[in-house]
Amino acid sequence: MKRMSVRMKITLWYALIILLLTAGPLSALAFTAEKVSWNKAEGKLKESLYDFMDEVDIRSDGYSTEEDTEYYDDGVSFSIYDSEGKLKEGNVPVHFPKDTVLKSGEVQTVSSGEKKWITYDEAYRTEEQIIWFRAVTSAGDLSMMGQVLLTLVLIITPVLAVLAIAGGYIITGRTLRPVEEALERERIFTANVSHELRTPVSVITSESEFAMMEEVSERERKESLSVILKQAGRMSALIEQLLVLSRGEAGERKLKMQETDLSVLAELTAEEMGEEAEAEGIRIVTDIRPGLKVRGSEDTLIRLFINLLENSIRYGKKGGTVRVSLKREGSYIKGCVEDDGCGIKKEDLPHIWERFYQADTVRTKDGKKGFGLGLPMVQWIVKVHHGRIQVESSTMEGTKFTFWLPAFEGSR
Questions:
Q1: 185 or 396: which carries more pLDDT confidence?
Q2: Of 43, 214, 334, 369, which is most buried, counting CB atoms within 10 Å of its CB?
């Protein structure tokens, strides 16, 4: 059985709390509204009866009424009974139970079938007898109001439940998305690191076992040691890049920011990478304006150019060209590293800044792969220098990385 997700659990708790906070008050409101309506109706019934009694001439030996006395007014029926409870004058509603007991000063609710009334009686005592006065009005509207309020509660509560669940699901989704994404990135990161380390570890293990065999010649043993050294160097480079990138993203690495001549760094890096490019049959050309300065960390800015150039050389074409340019653009220094190689597929472009992402392994000329950490490190370096970077690429035409860094005063 599939376990309920954290998001759904939180959503259901959220919905339950919302329902408890709304259904209770709504029910109380409906009950209170009905109660108020009944109290108001009872008060009106009493007042109507007292007004009717004021129109009756009560004497010690009896009472008398005017010819034009009205026994029905504004939904209320009036009637007069003798001391034995017999109806003397007045009206009672149709189907009203005639055997309803007279109770002085008490409001009664009387039912007959589906009909419901409220009635109020007053006993007036004279020297010789008791005269009973009764007022009756229909309670149908009041009962209907209670049913309507109850129906509204029953309708509104499920609607609120649906809205609470939907709203809670959306809110918790937005709240948990960064956490879920972080967990997913951590999972992918762990899988990628394991994958990158598995190969060199396997090679080192197998070469070590081979070198320890007695029948292995000295030449073969040295070759194995050479392979082990190469793989150990690869692992060391991976760990170093991971530490730099992870500490940088976590803000643990404090960079020494100072006035730095970016033009000099770009020229030196392009010159140093020239031999590596020539070995791949690629030429590096530069168009760098002198004296362009930024406030930054010299070693990380050098790494910025190295990573971009290594990327262009790795995915460039034999006989091709890598162009490095640097110029002033407003308050920024604009740098470009452009190659005419195989380019990057459109669907891969959004992912090239992700750690360990390697778009299309057959793009390299020799089939060698990097770690997929160079471009994420480039993005981090640009970010910590308060700049921005973008990439443009077309398959089989080339790739162009462009970055902007805030210019330091004095840059030309």
A1: 396
A2: 334
